[in-house]
Structure formats: structure tokens, C-alpha cells
Amino acid sequence: MRITTLLTVVAVAAGLLVGGTAQDAAAQEEEPFRAADFEYGSRFALPDGVTAEIWNPAKAKLVAGGPMIGGTVRATDPRTYCAMAAAGYDFVWVEMQHESISWEQVARMWRTCPGPAAPGARVAYADEREIQHATDMGALVIVVPTVDSVEEAQAAVDWTYFPPIGRRSAGGGQGAGELWNQVPGGYRQTWNDNVVLILMIETLEGVEASREIAQIPGVTGLFAASGDLGNFSGYGEGDPEYEALITEVSEAAIDAGIHACAPLRWANRASFTCFQAGTEAANIRRGAAAEIQQANESFGATGGGAPVERSGAAGLLAELTAQCGSITYEDDCYAAVRNAAGAAGDLSEDEQAQVARRLREIMGNNPNQADRIGEIAAEAGLSVQ
After folding, report:
1. What does the pLDDT read at residue 107?
2. How much is the pLDDT for 353?
3. Quick check: is 106 in a domain?
4. Which of 380, 299, 309, 300 is nearest to 348 (CA)?
5. Of 82, 160, 197, 280, which has the maximum CB count within 10 A?
6. Do 99 and 153 fall into the same domain?
7. Are 258 and 358 part of one and the same domain?
8. The pLDDT value given to residue 108
9. 29 in a structural domain
10. 161-170, 202-211, 248-257, 321-330: least confidently modelled range
């Protein structure tokens, strides 16, 4: 009897031991899924030995060493956008930060003229909705303003790139479905190689974090924002404090092996390889001023007759009208004033008088900037009093 009982106890214990081992094995087999341990698949990989073709003209310009030059559109008329897109720029960004343009209007412009300039947008901030609207509508260049931190920069990368680099959703839209559905290698397969992501450094916090931001994979370039770096620092071009901020941003980009971007008037500064030019309104004013000046000079003092030699002041007057006729960016206006006043010294007295007269007109139309315009002209050697 005792032997039987003992055998029963041993059997039960052995059963518990075997059952426990089986339960442990089952528990191991049923460990929860961990995304971090998952290995990304090859569905969107190009065939072995095939390199993604760069079909984005803006990205191609950067790969070639630049300069990549963009224009700016603040209007909603597709005809205006098309004129800018065909003007010779590498890309054209639509101003979505400071204008009340809808994404429906943007989509219509890009659908009307998807080239030859690459469509781009300066979105309002590093946000999934903003960036995915831009990319799904067809943008090939994404510009994100006032990036202050590594976290904001990473969010911009996340919503711009498809996995495994980012978190962009494959939602379709006219970009993938209409504009770029025939690109070499396929849109989804080559997007991450073709998109251009530019982050604007505009605040002191952004400058402080710029070296870390520049190291984030997926960031194409840092834009040293001339206007807002002055706005947030209280200094302007030429001031040592201001120039130190610009240098910090450009060096952060260069040291990280990415591109340093700036306004087009800084094309003569070393290290910068991508630039933003003026708006469509500035181009209209500039072109009209040059055309009218040339007509007036050809007409001559006698009211007609043989054409006369074109004045050397014509280009200066056109640029002053474009940048200061209706001031959009103060720094651009001040740069035009400085250039015109400095160049006037090589002109005839009559031409110098033309430049001074145009400056006085601009000062009268812009009383808030009049004193500064007068100071800049005087510093460059031209009195406008």
C-alpha cells in the first residue's frame, strides 16, 4: 500500500515537472511581438546591382554640386505658377507658411505644371498632416521652417520619408498616382533617394541644436534663414553677432556632409550650394522696371529716333523696384539698396541722380524703413538727401 502511494506521488510530481516544462516552452514560443526586433523586408528594394536613378531635377543639381536655385510663389493662379516653373529655376516652393493658400489650390498648380522646375513647398511646421499633404500632392522639395530641436527635425524626417527611414504613409494622392507614377524604378522604390528635405534654422535654439540636427539621416540641407535670424537675434547682416550665427549654421551643415542653403544674394559666400530666389511679384516688378527703363532710354530725349546706349543704372533701378517697391523681406531690400548705392559711384552724374531719386521714392513709400535705407545708402557712398 505504501509502495503504491509512493509511486502515485512520484508520477504526479513527474507530470507536474513535464507539464511545467511544456508550459515554459509554450510561453517562450508566445513571446509578444517587438517592432524593434523586426527585420525590414525587400519588397521595395531595387534588383541587386541596380542603383536608384535621380529623376528629381532639384536633387540632381545638388548631386552635381549645385547650385540648386529655387523660386518662391505666393499666388494661387496656375498660370503664374507655370511661368515661374518655366523660368529656369531648379525648383519652386509654394509659400504655405505665410500665405492662406489651400492644398487644393497647390494641387491644381502642380497638376497644371509639374515641371520643368521641381514642385516644392515651405510647409507651416514639422507635422504629419502638413508634410503628407505636400508629398501626396506631388512635392519633391520639402522646406520646414523654424526647426528648433532634434525632435522637430526627426519629425520632419519621419513624415517626409517612407519606411524604413521614416514613417510616411503610402496614401497615394496625385503625386504618386499621376505626376510621378512613371519615374524610373518606381515612385515608392526610389522616393527616399529623390526627395529633398531642407530644414530652416531661424532661432537661437535652432542654431544651438544645428550640429545635432545636421547629423540626422535624411536631412538634405540646413537653410540659414537670413530674415528670422535677424528677427530672433536683434542683429543684422554685417554685425559680428549675426554673422557668427550664420557661420555656425553653415559649418554645422558642411561638417555633417550635407548642404548649406541661403538667400540667392549670398551666392558669393563660400560653402553655400542651394539658394532661394525672389517671389513672382518681385520678378514681375524687376522685369517690368527693366523693360520700361530700356524703352525710355531707347525713346531718347527727342521723343524718338535712333536707339541710345542703355544706361548702366537700368539694372540697379530694376532691382530696387523689385525688392523695395513693395517690401516683402527687409534684408533683400537693404541688400539691393547697398548694391545700388555702391555701384552708383561708377556711373555718370545723371545716372547717380536717377538712383538717388529712386531711393527717395522708395523711402517716401516705406516710412518705417526710410531711415535705415538712407543710412545704408550713405554708408555705401551715395547721399539721398
Report:
1. 95
2. 86
3. yes
4. 309
5. 160
6. yes
7. no
8. 96
9. no
10. 321-330
